[in-house]
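Quick check before the chapter quiz. The format below is the same one you will see on the exam, so make sure you can read both the input and the output lines.
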Amino acid sequence: MRAPATLKEAATPYRLLAEGFLPPRDDLPPAALADALGDAIRGTRGPVLGTRIEVLRKAAARASVPDLRGEHRRLFIGPARLAAPANESAYRGDGRVMGPSAAEVARLLEDSGRRVSDGVRLLPDHVSVELALAAEFLEKHDLDTFQTILDRHLARWLPAFVSRLETASAHPYYLELARVADRLVGIDLAGGTP
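Here is the expected output.
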C-alpha cells in the first residue's frame, strides 16, 4: 500500500476525469482541466499516458465552453436519441437504463454513504459517478472496492464507450477524455498505481 498522500494524489486524475464528463462550466475551461489532468498524471502514470494527455490538451485548446455544452448535450443528454450514452448500463446486458450494473453501483454508493450527485442529475452508473467513486475509495484507502469499481465496472464498458465516441463525436474533446480514462483504468488494473 502506498503512503496516504500518494493515494490522494493517485485519486486526483479520477476526480478530474469525473468532472470532465459533467456539463461544461465557465470556471473550469477544457484547457485548464486538461492541464490539471496532465499535471496529476505526470508521476507514475505519465510515461504511459503522456501521448494521450498531449492529444487531449490539443483537443481542449480548440474547445470553447459554449461549443462543448452543445456537444455534451448531443452526446450524453438529448433530447434526441443519445449519440454516446455516458452510462454503463447502455453498454452492458440488454442496454436498458438502470440495468443490473446501475443497481450494483447504487449499492456501492449507498454502502459508502454517498448520494449519486449534488446538484447534477445523474444515474448511478454514469461515467462521472463511477470515476468519482473510484477516486473516493482510493482516498479512503479502500483498495479492494477501488479495484472492484475498475474491474467490475469501468474496465468492462469504457472500451465500448470510446468506440461509440469515435463514431459519434463532432469534437475530439470527449473522445480524448474517454481514451485517457480507459487507459488510466487499464494501467491501474495492471498494477501501475496504486
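If your answer matched, good. The longest helix spans residues 143-168.
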